[in-house]
Design brief:
about 170 residues, Immunoglobulin-like, three-stranded antiparallel beta sheet, 2 helices
């Protein structure tokens, strides 16, 4: 029985990609750098005060062959790489991957999925993920004087309290 390297490589590559993905999900994307093989999508992730950025190397992939989504605090990337073969040629080495490849990248913070943008320039996909307003730092005004709220700043229920009693409920507790 004869096994061609080209026919046995595809299932092995898919198995390895699945193991890499599972380990990446389990480890949160950390510690899986050396697991890259054919079909991998090396990525850089960084942030500034307003956005997260993800850069992914996708040489030779057209933008219409990329599917991106954000869910459960992760960026999901699916790519369909197709090579065009000329007729009447013999392929001696095929190191560039082809077919469908997927990867999920766990995000370090919540993002506003409705505002995500992506661009593909010179084989590098750059995804900009605006941070959720809930996780952005906010400025708190510091005021001088009495640390207790002024009478005008009290809630209506607090304003009814007088000398330990309320108008309807008896003593405060």
């Amino acid at each position: 029985m004869y096994f061609s390297p080209l026919t046995t490589r595809v299932p092995v590559r898919r198995f390895r990609e699945e193991v890499d993905r599972l380990l990446s999900d389990f480890l949160g994307g950390f510690g899986t750098e050396n697991l890259r093989g054919p079909g991998s999508m090396p990525a850089n992730v960084w942030e500034d005060k307003d956005n997260l950025y993800v850069e992914i190397e996708l040489p030779g992939v057209r933008e219409d062959k990329i599917d991106l989504s954000v869910s459960e605090n992760a960026l999901h990337i699916e790519v369909d790489r197709q090579s065009e073969e000329a007729e009447g040629v013999t392929v001696h080495r095929r190191e560039r991957s082809e077919g469908q490849t997927a990867r999920s990248i766990k995000l370090p913070t919540e993002v506003n999925a409705d505002e995500v943008t992506a661009s593909l320039v010179d084989g590098v996909l750059t995804v900009t993920l605006p941070k959720s307003p809930l996780v952005k730092p906010r400025k708190i005004k510091v005021r001088g004087g009495d640390p207790r709220p002024a009478e005008s700043e009290k809630q209506p229920a607090e304003a009814e309290h007088t000398n330990g009693k309320t108008a309807e409920h008896g003593p405060c507790q």
